[in-house]
Specification:
CATH class of one domain: Alpha Beta
Order of helices and strands: HEHHEEHEHEHHHHE
Oligomer: single chain
Structural class: alpha/beta
Number of strands: 6
Largest sheet: 6 strands, mixed
Radius of gyration: 19 Å
Length: 249
């Protein structure tokens, strides 16, 4: 049990929220417009006779070549052995300039030898961050460098992959896992399908940040539920942006 909590201190739970690169399709550079139209032809919809470019606002944000990272939520546990209590410290990074946001996140990743954990992180969060960093001219920090590494050298955890137990057939939503484990939902005021509207039209980044932080907390609680160690562990949530606490190596 001691080993589990020692290792838990090194896990950085994270979640990213993304939006389309521009509010309107017509604002994209012409070459990128052409590439989106090619991709759009491969997107299956109920109504396939859509106008060219009409799927951009709703679909572009999930593709790193046509989207952007608008905020990154992170959190980590600190185990207080004497009190048998866990502190979960979380923070959300957001910046009007995506490159500056990614540089701030990179600086955090370089503070220690983190193990990264996200829900569907291996299919979405981790590659999306890598692609957007390179597009913005940001060198990849060590935890995101996987080229040439052996599988056991890549320090990435994925709660969706952990839940599969070798089953490759199904995608499992974080909300479903939260439901079966009795963990409060993160979807009360916002869900992923509404982020683009909230970012571009409502200009409400604070709402997105709160949603992102809740997803990080849910991911961390799901991970704990999948690794039961002892009953009645008290978890205290500390939002670092609302306090003077800082992570110390």
């Amino acid at each position: 049990m001691a080993d589990f909590f020692d290792q838990l201190n090194d896990i950085l739970f994270l979640d990213i929220e993304t939006a389309s690169l521009t509010e309107r399709f017509e604002e994209l550079p012409e070459r990128i417009q052409e590439e989106w139209l090619r991709k759009e032809r491969n997107i299956q919809t109920i109504e396939n006779n859509h106008e060219p470019g009409s799927l951009y606002f709703d679909r572009a944000g999930i593709h790193a070549e046509f989207g952007q990272v608008v905020c990154i939520g992170v959190g980590y546990f600190q185990w207080k052995k004497k009190d048998k209590k866990l502190d979960f410290r979380s923070k959300c990074y957001a910046n009007d300039e995506e490159k500056e946001l990614l540089l701030e996140f990179k600086a955090l990743l370089e503070k220690k030898k983190w193990v990264l954990c996200a829900h569907n992180g291996k299919e979405f969060d981790f590659p999306y961050l890598c692609r957007r960093m390179l597009i913005n001219g940001v060198a990849l920090p060590e935890p995101l460098q996987i080229s040439g590494k052996k599988p056991w050298e890549v320090r990435h955890l994925d709660t969706m992959e952990l839940w599969k137990f070798g089953d490759y057939k199904h995608y499992t939503r974080l909300e479903l896992l939260a439901s079966v484990f009795g963990i409060p939902s993160s979807k009360d005021d916002l869900d992923g399908s509404q982020v683009n509207t909230t970012f571009h039209l409502e200009k409400d980044i604070e709402k997105i940040k709160k949603y992102c932080l809740r997803d990080v907390e849910v991911t961390a609680r799901v991970y704990m539920a999948m690794n039961p160690q002892m009953d009645d562990i008290e978890i205290e949530i500390i939002h670092l942006e609302d306090s003077n606490n800082e992570h110390k190596d």
